Amino acid sequence: MRVLGEGVNGGGDLCARPVKPFERGRPWLRWTRAPCKFNRENDYDWLGSGVYFWESNPARALDWAQHLQESRRGSPRSIVESYVVGAVLELGYCLDLISTAGIESVKASYLDLRSDAEKSDVKMPVNQGGSDLLQRRLDCAVINYMHAVNKRDKRRAFETVRGVFLEGKPIYETSGFYEKTHIQICVRNLPNIKGVFRVPDSLVRTRVAILGYSFTESEKQLFVEGESWPQLKTGVRRSCSA
Fold first, then answer.
1. pLDDT of residue 40
2. Beta-carbon neighbour count of residue 103 at 10 Å?
3. From CA 32, how far away is CA 55, in angstroms rounded?
4. 68 Cβ contact list (under 8 Å, min separation 6)
5. What are the angstrom distances between the C-alpha of 24 and each of 20, 28, 29?
6. Is the dihedral of CA 228, 231, 235, 241 positive or negative?
7. Which of 233, 18, 46, 19 has the alpha carbon at shortest distance from 137?
8. Residue 34 vs residues 15, 49, 196: alpha-carbon distances, Å
9. Which residues sit opposite 164 in a β-bridge?
């Protein structure tokens, strides 16, 4: 399954030019100044360690980048300019926390981690940071523990992790929809990032949600020839707000 992911959480110097993502190898490495620099190793990351993307949500990606730009102003990690970079991702072997199987797997991992912590007399981390639990040290530890156990037991490693998050305030009284609800994808296996491309300004603030996109052969060729974005036609489903 290929999905579009916009923006790399944490900001940074990704080159926002089109690439040739469908050729053999990993030509995008020439264009992105080594994406591995964006690997997140914070102990509070929501989906564990890896490279983070917002799924089909360029506006939210830009909001986050601008938030970081403002919060880091004047610091050694300050951001000069915030923008959105699109990416073509292959989910591959995915720990999908939108599925029942994924949730049950993480629940089992939590129980195993808690058992190990009790045997070792180690205090379990906790999620904290307001109503949105912005610092999710427990969730991060549970998911990273799952990866470590898979590696120890020589099981197949997850290439990506995907989760949905209800964040922000309800959009109206008694609403079940929240202002900042989004899906994040954490890529652990860099070859699953097939390429990056420039996201047109017209799509960054669009009120049309791009839910999925399948590239045709002719549209793939547009990338090879250096165009910035194929026409949105085949394979696009739209959901429009009023």
1. 63
2. 13
3. 19
4. 10, 11, 79, 82
5. 9, 11, 12
6. positive
7. 46
8. 10, 17, 12
9. 183
pLDDT of residue 209: 45
Check pLDDT > 60 for residue 107: yes
Please check whether residue 97 is in contact with residue 161, taking contact to mean a CB–CB distance below 8 angstroms: yes
State the Cα–Cα distance between residues 194 and 146, nearest whole angstrom: 25
Residues with Cβ within 8 Å of 4's Cβ and at least 6 positions away in sequence, in order, are 55, 56, 86, 87, 88, 89, 210, 213
Q: With contact defined as beta carbons under 8 Å apart, do 11 and 68 qualify?
A: yes
Structure tokens at 91: 């989910």
Q: What is the mean pLDDT of residues 216-223?
A: 44
For residue 136, what pLDDT band results from cuts at 50, 70 and 90?
A: very high
Token pair 């915030």: residue: 82
Relative to beta strand 208-210, strand 160-165 is unpaired
Q: Residue 181 contacts by C-beta under 8 Å, 6 or more apart in sequence?
A: 164, 165, 166, 167, 168
CA distance 79 to 27: 26
Select the more confidently predicted residue: 227 or 54. Answer: 54
